UniProtKB/TrEMBL annotation:
<feature type="transmembrane region" description="Helical">
    <location>
        <begin position="137"/>
        <end position="158"/>
    </location>
</feature>
<keyword id="KW-0812">Transmembrane</keyword>
<keyword id="KW-1133">Transmembrane helix</keyword>
<feature type="transmembrane region" description="Helical">
    <location>
        <begin position="109"/>
        <end position="130"/>
    </location>
</feature>
<feature type="transmembrane region" description="Helical">
    <location>
        <begin position="170"/>
        <end position="194"/>
    </location>
</feature>
<dbReference type="Pfam" id="PF11833">
    <property type="entry name" value="CPP1-like"/>
</dbReference>
<dbReference type="GO" id="GO:0031969">
    <property type="term" value="C:chloroplast membrane"/>
</dbReference>
<protein>
    <submittedName>
        <fullName>Uncharacterized protein</fullName>
    </submittedName>
</protein>
<keyword id="KW-0472">Membrane</keyword>
<dbReference type="InterPro" id="IPR021788">
    <property type="entry name" value="CPP1-like"/>
</dbReference>
Amino acid sequence: MLVYVAGGLVMTDILRVEAAYDMLLMQSLMQRRAGKVVSSNIRYADVKTINVPELGNPMPRWLQAAVKNPPVSVEAPSPSNVGIQAGVYGALMVLTYANGVSTSSAGRYAGADIPGLILATSFGVSLYFLTKKKIKLGKAVVITIGGLVVGAIVGSAVENWLQVDIVPFLGVHSPAAVVSELVLFSQLMVSLYLN
């Protein structure tokens, strides 16, 4: 038995460790050659995998995650919320209608911007009702702005079709009143159903 100390280790111990390591490597090599592999990842460890999208689902992963966990959801409101919010937005709609009926085509630009004031009030009311449903303020602002934009687009299209400044509709002479009515309705729907 050779005893040679190299850096604090005995040479015979080093030889035993190397022999055991060689024996384990040979066992693993024999198992791989025989096809007895513990994990399928080991069989092709040197081959890089390519992420191929599924044939039935061509959406990117980030879009799939957004669809599975949508940032905004639709929920049915409670009857008490419907009554309160319909009353508040109904009052704002009546004020807008009264302003649209009373506004003549000549004096339309002389007075205060009542539809703008009503829309600003509806924006604040919508924020109040959304934050009352435990929605964070930033998300509530985005939802409210989205409702405002959708209402303005639909209201502009309806007003362009009706052209109430030329031919009054139900006594309304003001195009701003038509757009405001649809924006208010959109704000009502957003504050009731979106969460």
